[in-house]
Write a structure and sequence with these properties.
It comes from Streptomyces daliensis. It holds the Pfam family ECH_1. InterPro entries: ClpP/crotonase-like_dom_sf (IPR029045), Enoyl-CoA_hydra/iso (IPR001753). There is one protein chain. The protein is of the alpha/beta class. It has one domain: 2-enoyl-CoA Hydratase, Chain A, domain 1 (Alpha-Beta Complex), CATH 3.90.226.10. The strands form 2 sheets. It has a 6-stranded mixed beta sheet with strand order 1-2-3-5-7-10, sandwiched between helices. It has a 5-stranded mixed beta sheet with strand order 4-6-8-9-11. Strand 1 and strand 2 form a beta hairpin. It is globular. The two termini are about 30 Å apart.
Length: about 260
């Protein structure tokens, strides 16, 4: 479920499935895309903040139970991929108002589709970032590519390869540039709103033009990398039944750094 509220030009987009750590099911993915597309034609929305409900997690990616229950199947070609999370971000929906991510708790895996398309991230000191794909026999492609636009290559490689064995603390994320501001626990949303209100008060054309300019600086590299993702995933992923077995077998222990 996606909640939205707009006050004084700032829209707050909340992933509201705290019982599922704000994992995104197929319906939620469609809702998010519709929210961003709706903002394109709503002049009252001049900036946005995306966050997760409940405080325990920003988002833990795709809800695997929902995807399996829906009978999701992939094309047989390694050059094609059906990924419901590819369209959950603002840039994927051609939205160029500034979007700030407010992160409390866990942000992992498919959460990076959203974080990768925010202008910047604000996180509480209790936030943690990790990528579980390799642990469960899956290729981290789009997620690692998104983070490679925001973090040093070695940090991205370590996070993507270590899987659930290691989480990046909010402090470490701040030190390597993934996070632009740290707040006390529970303070990320208000800090993000403070920034968003400033952006909403500026001339919209200048703000959106600047957002577009920043993204233009990295779009070519990002686009070329993402074009490689479908067949890397198709060739490297274990079959779904083997992935499910690993989900049940792997320990949940991890090291925070």
């Amino acid at each position: 479920m996606i909640r939205t509220e707009t006050v004084d030009g700032v829209a707050v987009v909340t992933l509201d499935r705290p019982a599922r750590h704000n994992a995104i099911d197929l319906e939620g993915a469609a809702e998010l895309a519709a929210v961003w597309r709706g903002f394109r034609t709503d002049p009252s929305v001049r900036a946005a903040v995306v966050t997760g409900a409940g405080g325990r997690a920003f988002c833990t990616g795709i809800d695997r139970e929902a995807a399996v229950a829906a009978g999701a199947r992939q094309p047989h070609s390694p050059y094609a991929l059906d990924d419901p999370l590819l369209t959950i971000g603002p840039k994927a929906n051609d939205l160029w108002i500034p979007v700030i991510a407010a992160v409390e708790g866990m942000a992992c895996g498919g959460a990076f589709y959203l974080l990768g398309e925010a202008e910047f991230l604000i996180a509480s000191e209790e936030a943690a970032f990790f990528d579980p794909h390799t642990t469960y026999g899956m290729v981290s492609a789009y997620e690692a590519m998104a983070m490679a636009q925001r973090m040093p290559l070695g940090e991205v490689a370590r996070m993507a390869l270590m899987g659930t064995a290691e989480r990046i603390s909010a402090r470490r994320a701040y030190d390597v540039g993934l996070v632009s501001e740290l707040t006390p626990p529970g303070g990320a949303l208000e800090a993000a709103l403070r920034c968003a209100r400033v952006l909403a008060s500026y001339p919209a054309e200048a703000v959106q033009g600047t957002v577009r300019a920043v993204w233009a600086a990295k779009e070519a590299v990002r686009g070329q990398a993402m074009a490689q993702a479908p067949h890397l995933i198709a060739l490297g992923n274990l079959p779904p039944d083997q992935q499910s077995g690993l989900f049940g077998a792997r320990s949940s222990g991890f090291r925070l750094r």
